[in-house]
Amino acid sequence: MSRFKLPVLTSRVWKVWRRNFDVFLKTWHVNFLPSLLEPILYLAAFGLGLGVLITGSVDGGSYLQFIGPGLVAIAVMYGAFFECTYASFVRMYFQKTFDAIVATPVSVEEVIAGELLWGATRAAINASIVLVVVAGFGLVSSMWVLLVPALAFFGGLLFAALAMCFTAIAPDIDFFNFPTFLFITPMFLLSGTFFPLGLLPTPLQVVAFGALPLTHIVNLSRTLILGRTEQLLGFSTELMLALNVLWIVVVTLVFFLLAIMLMKKRLIK
Amino acid sequence: MVSANVLIKAVGLTKKFGDFTAVDSIDFEVYEGECVGFLGPNGAGKTTTVRMIYCFSPLTAGSLRVAGLDVTTQARRIKSIVGVSPQEDNLDPDFTVIKNLQVYARYFDIPKSEATSRALKLLKFFQLEEKRDASIAELSGGMKRRLIIARALLNEPKILLLDEPTTGLDPQGRHIVWDKIRSLRKQGITVILTTHYMDEAAALCDRVLIMENGKIIENGAPQQLIRKYVGQDVLEVEYDEALVATLKSELPDVEVEVWGEQVRVFTKQPHGVFERVAKKFPDKTLTIRNANLEDVFLKLTGRKLDEER
Ligand SMILES: Nc1ncnc2c1ncn2[C@@H]1O[C@H](COP(=O)(O)OP(=O)(O)OP(=O)(O)O)[C@@H](O)[C@H]1O
Ligand SMILES: [Mg+2]
Hints:
The complex is a heterodimer of chains A (269) and B (309).
Chain A: H1 13-26, H2 28-53, H3 63-94, H4 97-101, H5 108-136, H6 148-169, H7 177-190, H8 202-211, H9 213-226, H10 237-267
Helix pairs in contact in A: 1-5, 2-3, 2-5, 3-5, 3-6, 3-9, 5-6, 5-10, 6-9, 6-10, 9-10
Chain B: E1 6-17, E2 20-31, E3 35-39, H1 46-53, E4 61-66, E5 69-70, H2 75-81, E6 82-85, H3 97-107, H4 112-125, H5 141-152, E7 159-163, H6 171-186, E8 190-194, H7 198-204, E9 207-212, E10 215-220, H8 222-229, E11 233-238, H9 241-250, E12 255-259, E13 262-267, H10 273-279, E14 287-290, H11 293-301
Parallel strand pairs in B: 3-8, 3-9, 6-7, 7-8
Antiparallel strand pairs in B: 1-2, 1-4, 4-5, 9-10, 11-13, 11-14, 12-13
Helix pairs in contact in B: 3-4, 8-11
Bound molecules: adenosine-5'-triphosphate (ATP) and magnesium ion (MG).
């Protein structure tokens, strides 16, 4: 095992990003429609269906208001995670795209970093589309909403890095069923997306806060879109937001480096 | 065109995969402007060697310098002056033919207009103009190979690495590639190629390195190796006890190799010796032909079935 070295990344990272962006532009309509329809379906189902049953206020607003920022956060998670698992795996394993690129002055590290930045971008694009729908339903009540694309990008980078670590160890494409069902689906439901985490027993709140990345993105998303923050574990609003940001930054950094390290190990033969 | 400058120099070059040694401490030099062929049976270590030259695979031991640069520390500079046509197809199926070249050129920092003009010239040369807007899935195997070679030339490389460039090509396709290699060599480009076609190696290479089990077992100009190992003429005939006996008694230096039902007889003596023997067996179909590189290759790397009979 060689000594740990920080990866050397140059602006060539963006050429890898650009390759994926070019493919995206070619097929944007295929990517665009589902991202647009999905939140509409959710909001319609929850607003017209479930929402009618929930008559009281949820965390100081309507139920529909509550889940709007959750849907934005879910788009961040799905956008980045699926891009850097299934899609990256196809490029790496079936298409040998990475092998082709590393024969040029672009390095393996830069290929992976470019993939991760692209995954973050996908998250930002998907989340922005969902945000437009949420705004269309009249569920935005803060000017801070303008920062949501930035949150989506950095939150997306977190999920991209996590996803890439799975890609680095995936023996085949079916392997991704495991993280999807054991990690992504539980998070989809249990990160303060569809009900306030405060309703859970304290130990579960601690788990959701400590171990589920989506919790932090949901919390920040709700703060930016609604201008209010869910109270958890007795933290003040300021401390809560600081911890959310810190958690995302630290975990992203760790997994960003880990993803590059693991992928190097896999790709360099 | 071959200069005295050493462009690629390997010393004790070794590559291991776990306990398995794929390239076993080889030494070789490639001169500027030279065309060198790596020959060898499947699994000999040709691709592994080529991959170390373009810094895809790190060395396990030894040293390797390309254009004076060390592959372990100067990968980026080496990769910018090398063009690679890998054995495996890795064209980008998400793009059309022309877009494949444009996107690839971007990795080399070639500006877009320049990239497009180079791409169009290369497509023309490799007779892929009509496919310029086709998707990769629409190309035949041979067209893909030609496009991969075209892609390897986008950065106007000083060194061209071609790993089995003509496998799967039709005769026209092969000649297109051969012509291109010859014309590039006139411009001073250095070429390393691997191939299983001995006629290709003989036609293109100044020198061949024959590999087996990770080692270089012979090295020289094709004609020189042919003279050294097989001589001028080869006699091919169906196996026949009496004939082989006669050959051995009349021509003391002959070497007889039996390959299944076929016998190949080599001699270092001048033209005409086989004709004398042939006259004594008028009802046999004997083929007398010039010795070639394939005879050398089989002799050096093949099992000698004669010894087992
Ligand atoms: N990534 C790898 N992991 C383990 N073994 C490998 C790897 N790559 C190659 N090998 C082994 O190294 C040896 C040399 O392989 P290489 O691809 O260099 O052969 P080659 O001479 O190019 O053969 P071919 O003519 O079939 O292309 C083979 O035995 C192969 O199985
Ligand atoms: Mg090979």
